[in-house]
Automatic annotation (TrEMBL):
Keywords: Cell membrane, Membrane, Transmembrane, Transmembrane helix. GO terms for molecular function: transmembrane transporter activity. It holds the Pfam family FtsX. Belongs to the ABC-4 integral membrane protein family. The keyword Nuclease does not apply. Signal peptide: none annotated. GO terms for cellular component: plasma membrane. It comes from the Bacteria. The chain crosses the membrane at residues 27-47, 291-314, 335-362, 382-406. Residues 296-411 form the ABC3 transporter permease C-terminal domain. This is Putative ABC transport system permease protein. It is a multi-pass membrane protein. Residues 26-254 form the MacB-like periplasmic core domain.
């Protein structure tokens, strides 16, 4: 054990000497590993950060949540021309499902109306996201408030002039320390009373409730009507936890088909998009992005591996005389092999550490500058471990052939060649 520790120490010293004595050659050889690790770990860190941000933003929704609407959130066999003729889900269908669908924990009707301008005294905000829901949405989304409350059933049914606002909306209209509850803001040429402010949730892909407002759906139905495609109506269904998923979906499909009078031989003219399908779709995109990162970095790592292999062949050539003397004095083949193999690994890890340091520095700079807003780049311990593992493996591959060649040198020929 001690002899291998000594070999590791000597190999580290040789690697450092190689860096010092052949700075340009070593730098150019390590650039491949550095660029490769920077590409792979940089992409993985960015994708992991994006995945964490998206899933944190979606974590309030249960995986079994179902969204009924006229479009599919994933691939479908229904032709586009046919999908464009699908009718919108209606408030009456929401009421029908609420009365007749067994096993549903909560059912909500939602409209996503076009962005609006809102005003409070001299403050004006443009292009504000507007969501209109029934009161059950509170239970489906598990909304959290920093102050106030969500609108109740009576306010929802009557379409009362009340509104719930996001954290960023509150800060811009009333200031960070201002009190929003009870204040009246103007939207749709109406004055609505603020009854709640949502907790800050951060931003994912430009979509956040921090910059949105929520109001009773029946209030917006008075303005937009019931057959307006710009409002993208949806019925959101949350099953009970112990309900069989496939059976529940079949019952839901049957209830809505009966309501719409769809014949047995006809296909459904609506889509029941399960939230789990959306997360699986996101996971697929994330996986594809990671593969792209591996593909980009893989070529650079391949070049880096050849560079380190070249440096090791040169190192063996330069130290042929020393290898011969070591073997003549009794050094075993594995001693020589590990000596050069450790040196190759150390050089490869140097390149990897530089690449990861660049990723870490850039992520710190982006987070500190605020360019990415609420999106935060995070270099996770797993990615650091992965980067070190990859460079270790590249070091072994790049150094194994030169190391085997050095270990098989005949001591007499090695000394003679070195002289």
């Amino acid at each position: 054990m001690f002899i291998y520790l000594r070999v590791l120490k000597e190999s580290f010293r040789f690697a450092v000497n190689a860096l010092r004595n052949n700075k340009l050659r070593t730098f150019l050889s390590l650039m491949g590993v550095t660029v490769g690790i920077f590409s792979i770990i940089g992409v993985l860190a960015a994708v992991d950060s994006l995945e964490r941000q998206i899933k944190d933003s979606l974590s309030s929704l249960d995986q079994s949540t179902i969204i009924l609407c006229h479009v599919s959130f994933g691939p479908t066999d229904v032709p586009r021309w046919k999908r464009e003729q699908f009718p919108l889900v209606t408030y009456e269908e929401y009421q029908h499902l609420k009365r007749t669908l067994p096993g549903a924990k909560a059912i909500s009707y939602v409209l996503n109306v076009p962005s609006q301008t809102i005003k409070y005294e001299d403050e004006t905000l443009e292009r504000v996201q507007v969501g209109a829901t029934t009161h059950e949405y509170y239970d489906i989304e598990s909304l959290q408030f920093q102050e106030g409350r969500f609108f109740n059933e009576a306010e929802s049914i009557s379409g009362s002039n009340v509104i719930v606002i996001g954290d960023e909306i509150k800060n811009q209209l009333f200031g960070e320390d201002g009190n929003a509850i009870g204040k009246k803001i103007k939207i749709f040429s109406r004055k609505l009373t603020v009854i709640g402010v949502l907790k800050k949730e951060g931003n994912a892909l430009g979509d956040s409730k921090d910059e949105a407002v929520v109001l009773p759906v029946n209030l917006t139905r008075k303005i937009y009507g019931d057959n307006n495609r710009s409002t993208f109506p949806q019925v959101i269904v949350l099953p009970e936890p112990d309900v069989d998923n496939e059976e529940f979906l079949a019952t839901l499909d049957q209830k809505l088909r009966l309501k719409r009078g769809i014949k047995t031989s006809e296909v459904s003219n609506f889509f029941a998009n399960q939230f789990k399908g959306l997360t699986d779709f996101i996971d697929g995109i994330i996986g594809a992005l990671k593969l792209i990162g591996w593909g980009i970095g893989g070529f650079a790592l391949l070049v880096g591996g050849f560079g380190i292999a070249n440096i090791m062949f040169v190192s063996v050539k330069e130290r042929t005389n020393l290898i011969g003397i070591q073997k003549a004095l009794g050094a075993k083949r594995r001693f020589i092999l590990f000596q050069f193999l450790f040196e190759s690994i150390v050089l490869s890890i140097f390149g990897g550490i530089i690449g990861m340091f660049l990723v870490w520095s850039i992520s710190l700079g982006l987070n500190a500058s605020g360019i990415t807003g609420d999106f935060k780049f995070v270099l996770s311990p797993f990615n650091i471990f992965l980067g070190l593992s990859v460079t270790f493996f590249i070091g072994i591959l790049a150094g194994i052939i030169p190391a085997i060649g050095a270990s098989r040198l005949d001591p007499v020929e090695a000394i003679r060649t070195g002289m």
